[in-house]
Amino acid sequence: MSLRSNSSSSSSNYSKEDDRNKDTSSSPSTFDSRFNQTLKNVQGLLKGRSFPGKVLITQRSDPLDQSALQSPNNDRRFSNDDTEQTDKFDRSVEDEIQNRSNASASSSANKTKASTLSTDNTSKVVQKTAMGARSTDSARLTKFQKELSGTTVILEKLRELAWSGVPPYLRPTVWRLLLGYAPSNSDRREGVLKRKRHEYLDCVAQYYDIPDIERTDEEISMLRQIGVDCPRTVPDVSFFQQAEVQKSLERILYTWAIRHPASGYVQGINDLATPFLVVFLSEYLSGSIDTWSMADLSPEKVSNVEADCYGCLSKLLDGMQDHYTFAQPGIQRLVFKLKELVRRIDEPVLTHMEEQGLEFLQFAFRWFNCLLIREIPFHLVTRLWDTYLAEGDALPDFLVYIFASFLLTVIFDFAHVFEIE
Description:
The protein is an all-alpha fold. The chain folds into 2 domains: about 300 residues, no CATH class; about 90 residues. The chain contains 17 helices and no strands. Helix 9 runs antiparallel to helix 10 and helix 13 packs across helix 15. The two termini are about 20 Å apart. About 30% of the residues are buried. The N terminus is likely disordered.
């Protein structure tokens, strides 16, 4: 079910046909469209935390609402549309043009006129949609700025805004607030962050910057495993292959593991640190992540980024501690809930999976363990995490719903492509 490769061995499995089709079926725009639509589906379905029937895999019979084509940064009100809205809209436009063409086939002049009118109308629709998206984004940006400018941030209002996406340059501040790493009172914020960053430096000096002779055998083994996993983290993004980046990840992960002995380090936590690292580095580095270099930053800035990553990672994992303790019972429980939810939504799909011998643990365990970071293009991860963090304490249960939506979206796509009933 993975939508992107997370290892070199996975990359080698792609066929030449996949490469030829990468500009269409696997293009970033297609991923963005499917991703944003899946979030919209979940957004519309979460009222009462229940799914109304087979909404994700039912064909639409009514005309498509143009508002569905607006920017993903909309208000939290969406209809329960099919995940293939954009494709259906394209096909409906093509059908309409074809019908008009056939109706006017007897006259070349009328045919030309109809074609020109159709092109103009389509252009106006696209232009109007783009203008609407910019207007919506501008309005949402104003709302964010208003919420963040007060002496005390009202977190519930901030969560409401963040659910539909956070403007990139505001994301570091918003994430710190949503996780409770930074206080909502602006007068205290700078002092608290300064103190927490000093505390992180002290922890690194106490636990990481020491010779191995002062570590236990278990700590040496854990540090060695972290050192093996860091180069494997997000292997398809060159930024994470920089030695300085891997060293920062190693310090963050090892310090966290030592401070949380109930679980220690578990493979998968390395993936969870990456969105924080990218977001907090964006305060100091600009442009594409492919052009970033940790070597351009001063030691103080690197330390601040690491401290914020460590603090926010700790806050995130505090809400799902049993996901990473022995046998990871929290994840096993969520996998069971996912299976039962799919049964409620579409029992024939579950029956088919069981007949094929496909167990949910075979694919869903990694989804919960890494929060889909290995399954979607990395440039979409921070947008997804805006919604994750906006859920707050409800995140574990929310994951069940969003993973069900992703699963049925993928199943629908395969069924549509291969015309499987």
